[in-house]
Amino acid sequence: MRLVLADMKAPLPANEEERLRVLAAFRQLDSAAEKDFDDIVQLAAAICDVPIALVSLVDRDRQWFKAKIGLNVCETSRDDAFCAHAILQTEPLVVRDATQDPRFADSSLVQGEPHLRFYAGVPLLAESGEALGTLCINDRRPRELTEMQLQALRTLARQVTVLFELRKVAADLARALANVRTLAGFLPICAYCKKVRDDAGYWSQVETFMRQRTDLQFSHSICPSCVQVHFPDL
């Protein structure tokens, strides 16, 4: 029976722009390798007895590997990525033999190095529901996973997401602390117009200065003392 090849390129998720915004907010793309993530892919490879395991983040035009074992490259085109299909669903994507799957049979990753045949990827879901990428495993031969192995992948994928969330919280707290330290110092403020001078020597309104350094939002009104001075008839 002749296999009819389909377009390898996965459709974009319905929430693609929001997904990319959330992915960028985690600040993990192109970040340094970390032992916590390296340990997870090594454990995934050992449990599933495969030569390749990855923590893959799906960017706009590429998939980038936060952690990897069994591959020498740090990213591939999104058009060739199995993970671009996996992020379209919330359950694991399992491809037992890529040469028999019309979505992947003509892929350069199947036809050439690393000659992938088997793939299993669990979506990495942010707390808000967006899929950042996958924890995935690959083999160069067709195969199956046991239910225990698949459940282990799900558990490890949740741990990857927890690590991402913890790092985001830590980074947000660090930025907030930096803002507090900035505001705790002396502010050079004009005695007449009350503008504030920034580190570059520019003078700006207090509201502008604060917005640039914090998440504060301002609303304006007139205090009773100023009403008496400027609007005595009221």
How would you characterize this protein structure?
This protein is an alpha+beta fold and 234 residues long. The chain folds into two domains: 16-172, Beta-Lactamase (2-Layer Sandwich); 186-230, no CATH class. The chain has seven helices and eight strands; from the N terminus they run H-H-E-E-E-H-E-H-E-E-H-E-E-H-H. The protein has helices spanning 16-25, 35-48, 83-86, 108-111, 147-184, 206-213, 224-230; strands spanning 52-58, 62-69, 75-77, 93-95, 118-125, 131-139, 196-197, 203-204. The strands form two sheets. It has a six-stranded antiparallel beta sheet with strand order 3-2-1-6-5-4. The chain has a two-stranded antiparallel ribbon with strand order 7-8. Helix 2 (35-48) packs antiparallel against helix 5. The termini are far apart.
Please work out how many helical segments DSSP would assign.
7
Number of self-contained structural domains: 2
Distance between the termini: 89 Å
Main sheet attributes: strand count, strand direction, barrel closure: 6 strands, antiparallel
Find the count of extended strands (DSSP E, 2+ residues): 8
CATH superfamily of the largest domain: GAF domain
CATH architecture of the largest domain: 2-Layer Sandwich
Task: Itemize the secondary structure elements and their pairings.
Blueprint: H1 16-25, H2 35-48, E1 52-58, E2 62-69, E3 75-77, H3 83-86, E4 93-95, H4 108-111, E5 118-125, E6 131-139, H5 147-184, E7 196-197, E8 203-204, H6 206-213, H7 224-230
Antiparallel strand pairs: 1-2, 1-6, 2-3, 4-5, 5-6, 7-8
Helix pairs in contact: 2-5
